[in-house]
Amino acid sequence: MEITPDAYIYWRHGFAKLNLTIVTTWGIMLLLSLVSWLATRRLSTGPDIGRWQNAMEAVVSLIERQTSDIMQRKDAHRFMAFLGTIFLFVATSNLLTIFPRYEAPTGSLSTTTALAICVFVAVPAWGIQELGLGRYLKSYLAPNPVMLPFNVISELSRTIALAVRLFGNIMSGSLIVAILLSVVPIIFPVLITILGLLTGMVQAYIFFVLAAVYVAAGMRAMGPGKKKAQQQDKEEDLHG
Questions:
Q1: Quick one: 78 exposed, middle or buried, by C-beta within 10 A (0-12, 13-18, 19+)?
Q2: Neighbours of 8 (CB within 10 A)
Q3: Which of 132, 133, 213, 235 is spaced 20 to 30 A from 4 at the CA atom?
Q4: How far is residue 56's CA from residue 32's CA, in Å, rounded to a whole number?
Q5: How far is CA 192 from CA 100, 105, 178, 182, in A?
Q6: Which residue blocks in 72-186 are alpha helix, DSSP H?
């Protein structure tokens, strides 16, 4: 068994290649798009709501409530498209491991790194939108300019940790199941597969929570300073 689905290559031309990670990633995106289309093609606000719409509303409400609780913001719906998509992709990717011979794309470091980079870009994007470019950049100098390199290293290290944590847990789970299948081919691997599904969902939730926490922290980067600056702006306006 290969450690990562990147090793299964179907087509290669120069630097370009099509491997199992890309195939399963696009397959999951098509699956999520199909389910979304089925759930929203006949939207209704009346008492006769379809099963697909009912299930979709339950999932969206759950994600929105969790996002609001974690970020402690009333405008949690602003982050739903990004955080919800990440959670659904990772959760679906991990749930499909119940099918034999399926290799989750989250078991590839390239996939988890891409997801972590999305979070890495989203944090300053929303931070700058909330605080402004100058105030956001000043957060890297807090509590004093000496901390600048440490704050930058912290940003990079947590992105790496986000990618490696998800990759390591999914890859190790798949590896353990494969080893047990070769040793005890019936009962024990089934139990480990069930445990792996639970672990996969927990890892999807942890990734979602950490992404929400990082985005919220980036938007509060200048919390006290922002309030002080706003107070100064008000005083300047009053004194004319």
A1: middle
A2: 14
A3: 213
A4: 11
A5: 14, 19, 10, 13
A6: 80-95, 109-131, 133-138, 148-183
C-alpha distances in Å from residue 122, one per residue of 79, 213, 216, 217: 10, 12, 10, 12
pLDDT value of residue 236: 47
Phi, psi (deg, nearest 5) at residue 216:
-65, -40
Buried b (16+ CB within 10 A) or exposed e, 55-69: ebeebeeebbebbbe
User: How many helices (DSSP H) and strands (DSSP E) are in the chain?
Assistant: 8, 2
Amino acid at 88: L
* 165-190: average pLDDT: 74
Q: Distance between CA 152 and CA 137 in Å, rounded? A: 11
